[in-house]
Structures are given as structure tokens and as C-alpha cells.
Design a protein that fits this description.
With about 525 residues, the protein is an all-alpha fold. The chain is built from 25 helices and 2 strands. One of its GO terms (molecular function) is carbohydrate:proton symporter activity.
């Protein structure tokens, strides 16, 4: 078994084995391995969770273009439109008060089912709405259920996925929002031809249930998190899950032995330190650093100008002179195809390129695109929107911005899971979810007001925010590439954490058939 010199927890050089040293070399692609293929198919119940989020924003864009929706709800604008748009965000914020407790008590699997049921109730209310209040209430329930799902799913993926596929799966999970956006954009494009019928907006509302029905069905079959099982004194079950899905049934696998040893050591250490209180985030320098990352990355990925395009595309297109309804719907579809392609493409490169480079390059690209968009929109407005070249350039920048957004976005869920220790992981996603929801609530109210008040000049605000985001990533976000969840602790707790060290004499014990502890 390979060993290598690495910096120990106390800053000295030690012989330590990393997880990448014990991952077996495989000559075939993952779908040729039956257990791994089954695991990845079951993890679809987590992967599709962001479809609801993406669908929601794109559906609202589409509904604001459909005349029957505007007439039914008396042409909502200003604060009323802000309340409607933010209905799901209010629900997501509410879910944060219960998500951590549900995940810590019932595991990662059951909260997915609970969230799905609540979301489906919200879809029923939204579809059957007879007034604005009922429509908003349905959206609040959708957000509440989706908030529980969005907290549980990335944790289950991070703790259950095969080590070399963890970041790719969490990245793809994030990019499924683009699939949801594309579905909603296509559906609202089609239902717009239903004319004055309320089904032109009720049908898109009803179809928002699709992904949650799939999640609910698969949640009964996906395995539970091995780390949660070990933490709750069900080690044999955890051992069987890892043996089946990570080692293809090979009970002598070095990877299986390594993973169980790391989980045992990390959870025993955290239990000894009683890492259960919310105040634990502020007890050590390492945890304060973690808290800063978990909180700021939620704002960072939502405060970059994306909300202008995702929720208020109509206003943005009008600001660059594109007012035709059919053209706006077509562009909405194109933007979401663009996002889905680049989201999945960049997800496959996270493990190769690293987290910091993906985040920094994504933010840099977004800044450049938004800066050019700001300049050419100003030029176009001064020409009374008769400058076709400026309009075409503005539209191109919207697509380029979307591509770079999908370079940075898929990194976030896996990065939050990686920087957080086991007992703070559920709380980390609650904090991250709060930041995400708070940022979106602000966007929901501020963006339409800002665009209405100062037009294209409002884009300058987001250029400045993007610059500050780049500074945050450069100075405060460490790289976690190639490390297991337990190994990332070395980046934060050099003075406290413990490595699992193996002396050459232990090799025979490691190579011997592994039996689960009783």
C-alpha cells in the first residue's frame, strides 16, 4: 500500500495514507460495475432535487410573459410581484428551522420523503389557486418541502457516493436546476398557445411535481448514509452498505477498510468533543473559518447577478430592447439549454481542476460578461435601442454569463460538505441554505426595484459584487481536491485533528478479510 509524506495535524512531516492511495484501479467505466451502477441510479433521488428550484425560477419568468396569468392575478408588479416570486424563498427559510433536526434524528433518507410530500401539497395548492393568497401559500409550501430536500440530498450524496465520483455527482445535482429551467421554459412556451385558458399557467404549475414524485419513490430504496449509521451505533449496517456499493462485495477491500477506519476515528473524535451545539462553530479557529466559508458561499453564488436573469429575464430583455413575447420565450428556452449543457460539462472537471480554480475562473468570467453587458446596454439605451449590434452583444453576454455561472455553481454543494465535519454537516447546509434564501429574498425585492429605478446602471452594482466575491475566494477558500471528507480537516484543524496512520507492519491486517465489528 502506498504511503506518502504529508504535513501532519501538528504541522510536522508524517507518513500518512490518503484515500486516493487505496482506491482500486478500474479498467472499465462505472456502469460496468453492478453495485456501483445501482448506487448511482438510486442517487438520482438526490441528483434531481435542484430541478424544482430551477423549474420555479424559469416558470415564473414564463408566467410573467403569459397574458392569462397576468390577467388572472391583476397584473402583479412591484412588491406584489416580489411576494409571489419570493414565496418559495419564504418557505425555504422556514424549512431551515427544522431541517437540521430532521436530518440528525431520522437520517438523510427519510427527510427527502418528508420534503417531497410537503412539496407535492404545495403544488396542488398552487395549481388550484383562485387568488394571489392561495397561489403564494402553495409556493411557500413548495419552498418549505424543497428546502428540506435541498438540505438532506447533498449530505447523502457526499456521504454515500463512491469517493472518486462525489464531486461529479454533487456538481451534476447542482446543474439539474438548468434541466428544471429548461423544462419550465419549454412547457410555458407551449402552454402560452392555450390563449386565455387558465391552464396556460395551471399546467406548468402542476408539472412542477414531476421531480418530487420521482424523489419520493426512490427515497424508499436508496441506502442510508454510512456515517449517520456509525454515529447512531449501527456500524454493521454501514459496513454492509460500503462493502456492497463501494467494494462490489469484496470484504477484503483496502478501500472498505480505509473508509470504515476513517469514519470510526472521525466520529469517535467528534463524539468525544461533543460537537453538537451551534456554538461549536465559534469554538475553534478552524470552525470559525468553516463557518465563514459555509455562510459566504451561499451569498456568493446568488449575489453575482444571476437572479436578474433567472427571475426577471423579461425586465432584462426589455432593458436591451427585446420586447416581443415569442422572442422572449425562445430566448428563455435557449438560456436554459445553455445552462444545462455547461452545468453538466463543468461538473465533470471539478475533481481534475479543483474547487478554487473553478470558483475563481467562473466568477472572473461572470464579471467580464456582466461588465460588457453593462457597457453595451448603456450604449444601446442611448441609441434608443436602435443599435442592433449592441443588442446582439448584450444577448451574447447573457449566454456567456450563464456558462461561467455553471462553472462556479456545481462546486458549491460538494465544497460545503467537504469543509464541514460530520456533526456540523447538517447545520452547515442549514446555514448555507439560510444564506442562499436570504440572498434570493433580497434579489426578489431589490432587483425589480433597481431595474425600474435606474435601468441598466443597476448592473454596475453586480459588477462590484462580483469583484468582492473574487477576493473572498482567492484569500479565504482552501483547496480540497483529492481528499476524503475526513481528510479535509487537515486544512482547518492542524493543531487538533488526528490522522489515521498505518505502519508497514499493519499491512497484513489490512489485507486480511475484513469482518464487521460487533
Amino acid at each position: 500500500m502506498k504511503t506518502q509524506d504529508t504535513e501532519g495535524w501538528n504541522g510536522t512531516s508524517t507518513e500518512a495514507t490518503l484515500i486516493r492511495d487505496v482506491i482500486p484501479k478500474r479498467t472499465k467505466l462505472w456502469w460496468h460495475y453492478p453495485a456501483l451502477r445501482t448506487l448511482n441510479l438510486l442517487l438520482i433521488c438526490c441528483i434531481v432535487t435542484d430541478i424544482t428550484n430551477g423549474y420555479d425560477g424559469s416558470m415564473l419568468n414564463g408566467l410573467q410573459i403569459i397574458d392569462s396569468w397576468k390577467e388572472f392575478f391583476n397584473h402583479p408588479s412591484g412588491s406584489i410581484l416580489g411576494v409571489i416570486s419570493n414565496g418559495t424563498r419564504f418557505g425555504q427559510i422556514g424549512s431551515l428551522f427544522v431541517s437540521a433536526a430532521l436530518i440528525e434524528k431520522f437520517g438523510r433518507r427519510r427527510p427527502i420523503a418528508i420534503g417531497s410530500v410537503i412539496l407535492l401539497l404545495g403544488v396542488i395548492l398552487q395549481t388550484a389557486a383562485v387568488n394571489t393568497t392561495m397561489f403564494v401559500l402553495g409556493r411557500v409550501l413548495i419552498g418549505f418541502g424543497n428546502g428540506i430536500q435541498a438540505t438532506a440530498c447533498p449530505i447523502l450524496v457526499a456521504e454515500l457516493a463512491y469517493p472518486t465520483q462525489r464531486t461529479q455527482i454533487t456538481g451534476i445535482m447542482n446543474s439539474t436546476g438548468s434541466l428544471g429551467s429548461l423544462l419550465a421554459a419549454t412547457i410555458t412556451f407551449g402552454t402560452a398557445y392555450l390563449g386565455s385558458s387558465t391552464w396556460s399557467w395551471r399546467l406548468p404549475s402542476l408539472l412542477q411535481a414531476m421531480s418530487s414524485i420521482l424523489q419520493l419513490a426512490l427515497s424508499f430504496y436508496v441506502p442510508e448514509s454510512p456515517r449517520w449509521l456509525v454515529h447512531n451505533n449501527r456500524r454493521d449496517e454501514a459496513w454492509k452498505i460500503l462493502a456492497k456499493y463501494h467494494a462490489e462485495g469484496d470484504e477484503s477491500s483496502e478501500l472498505l477498510k480505509f473508509e470504515m477506519d476513517e469514519i470510526d476515528a472521525a466520529i469517535e473524535r467528534e463524539k468525544a468533543q461533543s460537537l453538537t451545539s451551534w456554538m461549536e462553530w465559534f469554538r475553534t479557529t478552524g470552525n470559525r473559518h468553516r463557518f465563514f466559508i459555509v455562510l459566504t458561499i451561499g451569498f456568493l453564488i446568488q449575489w453575482c447577478g444571476n437572479a436578474l436573469i433567472s427571475y426577471y429575464l423579461t425586465l432584462v430583455l426589455k432593458s436591451i430592447g427585446i420586447t416581443d413575447t415569442r422572442t422572449q420565450l425562445t430566448i428563455n428556452v435557449g438560456i436554459n439549454i445553455n445552462g444545462m449543457f455547461f452545468g453538466n460539462f463543468f461538473s465533470l472537471w471539478i475533481e481534475r481542476v479543483g474547487r478554487r480554480p473553478m470558483l475563481f475562473m467562473g466568477l472572473t468570467g461572470m464579471f467580464c460578461a456582466f461588465l460588457i453587458l453593462t457597457v453595451v446596454t448603456g450604449i444601446n439605451q442611448n441609441a434608443d435601442f436602435h443599435n442592433s449590434a449592441a443588442s446582439q452583444t448584450s444577448l451574447a453576454m447573457i449566454f456567456i454569463f450563464g456558462a461561467f455561472y455553471k462553472m462556479a455553481g456545481p462546486v458549491c454543494p460538494s465544497y460545503v460538505a467537504e469543509v464541514s465535519p460530520y456533526d456540523l454537516r447538517a447545520k452547515a447546509f442549514v446555514i448555507n441554505g439560510f444564506a442562499d434564501a436570504a440572498a434570493n429574498v433580497f434579489n426578489g425585492f431589490a432587483n425589480p426595484v433597481g431595474l425600474t429605478a435606474i435601468g441598466w446602471k443597476y448592473y454596475i452594482v453586480w459588477c462590484c459584487v462580483l469583484l468582492s466575491n473574487m477576493v473572498l475566494v482567492y484569500f479565504f477558500y482552501p483547496e480540497t481536491k483529492g481528499l476524503s471528507l475526513e481528510e479535509v480537516a487537515i486544512k482547518f484543524d492542524k493543531d487538533q485533528a488526528e490522522t489515521i496512520q498505518r505502519e508497514p507492519a499493519e499491512k497484513e491486517a489490512i489485507d486480511a478479510p475484513l469482518e464487521p465489528k460487533q
